[in-house]
Write a sequence for this structure.
């Protein structure tokens, strides 16, 4: 077990909450770093998708490239959670940001110079996915170290609002950049965003974490850390039920929108307009964050889980009514639902999981949520060739609704209260 790293979040109640999250220096740097990172990174999926389509014109090749990143991400996530619970999380994020900048810079150079090939893009996607797997648990678990517990919901909402705003600007500018000068320069912007984010993460300067120790007083092993994280993950049924929901939901949603979305765009309303559709979802995320700042339902997790059925709407619309105005409205609505869920989920984990195990629980959450994404990305292309894009997209929408219904039927999900943290977490925070 690690000791409390202290800092702004060492007091679990309302002490230190005056002035809101922005009154805390560490949180301001975290907000700036994550917003900058997403500003560049939101360009990458659009740029990479059209880079592959320019190279081969194949939806199957595009699915292979994006799936390679997802597979590497899932494979390394558990190790990333251990690293984030053992080392200073701000230091982990600096290193991961610089590594991501390097991998994306190489991809950009290959695309700009015309030297890119599918095998090279697959290899670089694997490297980029591995780097992201180290940074994701660290970033998610860092929030309670920058603000008091009483400010977690507004802090998460502000972070998500920053990510959404960066995504809106990045996706809109990225689509125009790809249409005017090509996808390689969009990838170069992504690399620059990661480099700047690394410099901003370096400004956090949080107290160093105590290294995990075994019962005998020596350092714990990676396997022991993973077992402890698994125990924290499985002992709360609402955690693994929602993660199982997202294993199915993400495979359907990401496969449909990441692989078939650009294909539908190329065949109908155009590449630049697809950027507007993606940006509309990001606008929805921003709206959802603003709603979450004001709306604090007692059973926030149940509300968020139920709202995930709304994400079937943009997927079905891609198949049934791929007209730009309808798609913009559908993706905006889906973004609102996604964001309200995400903020409720983060609040639920951060108020109920002991802080010293939080990154590992997030890593199990991410593995479970992401594990089926490569399968969805790989299968939707061939399925569209056999059954047609329309039928495949409608089937994906139906899968999303069924997965959400199953999760919401669990009593532990419906009854979880946002204002009653686990006793174990109260004790750990007070220690």
């Amino acid at each position: 077990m690690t000791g409390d790293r202290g800092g702004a979040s060492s007091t679990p109640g309302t002490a230190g909450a005056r002035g809101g999250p922005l009154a805390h220096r560490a949180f301001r740097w975290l907000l700036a770093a994550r917003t900058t990172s997403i500003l560049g990174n939101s360009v990458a999926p659009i740029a990479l998708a059209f880079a592959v389509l320019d190279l081969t014109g194949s939806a199957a090749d595009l699915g292979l490239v994006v799936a390679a990143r997802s597979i590497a991400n899932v494979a390394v996530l558990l190790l990333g959670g251990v690293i984030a619970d053992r080392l200073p999380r701000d230091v982990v994020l600096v290193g991961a940001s610089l590594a991501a900048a390097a991998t994306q810079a190489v991809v950009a150079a290959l695309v700009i110079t015309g030297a890119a090939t599918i095998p090279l893009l697959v290899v670089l996607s694997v490297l980029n996915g591995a780097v992201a797997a180290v940074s994701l648990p660290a970033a998610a678990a860092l929030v309670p170290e920058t603000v008091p517990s009483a400010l977690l919901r507004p802090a998460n909402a502000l972070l998500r609002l920053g990510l959404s705003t960066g995504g809106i600007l990045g996706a809109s500018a990225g689509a125009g950049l790809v249409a005017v000068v090509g996808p390689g320069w969009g990838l170069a912007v992504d690399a620059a965003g990661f480099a700047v984010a690394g410099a901003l993460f370096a400004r956090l300067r949080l107290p160093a974490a105590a290294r995990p120790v075994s019962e005998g007083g020596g350092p714990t092993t990676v396997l022991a850390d993973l077992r402890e994280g698994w125990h924290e993950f499985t002992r709360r049924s609402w955690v693994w039920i929602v993660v199982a929901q997202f294993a199915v939901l993400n495979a359907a949603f990401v496969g449909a929108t990441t692989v078939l979305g650009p294909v539908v765009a190329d065949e109908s309303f155009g590449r630049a307009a697809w950027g507007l559709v993606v940006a509309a979802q990001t606008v929805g995320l921003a709206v959802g964050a603003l709603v979450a700042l004001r709306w604090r339902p007692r059973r926030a997790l149940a509300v968020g889980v139920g709202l995930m059925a709304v994400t079937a709407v943009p997927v079905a619309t891609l198949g049934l009514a791929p007209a730009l105005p309808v798609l913009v409205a559908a993706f905006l609505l889906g973004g609102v639902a996604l964001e309200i869920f995400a903020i409720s989920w983060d609040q639920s984990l951060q108020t109920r999981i002991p802080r010293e195990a939080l990154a590992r629980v997030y890593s199990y959450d991410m593995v479970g949520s992401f594990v089926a994404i490569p399968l969805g990305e790989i299968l939707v292309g061939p399925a569209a060739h056999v059954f047609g894009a329309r039928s495949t997209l409608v089937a994906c929408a139906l899968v999303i609704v069924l997965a959400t219904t199953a999760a919401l039927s669990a009593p532990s999900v419906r009854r979880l209260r946002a204002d009653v943290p686990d006793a174990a977490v109260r004790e750990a925070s007070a220690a």
About this structure: The mean pLDDT is 82. Residues 267 and 359 are 42 Å apart (CA to CA).
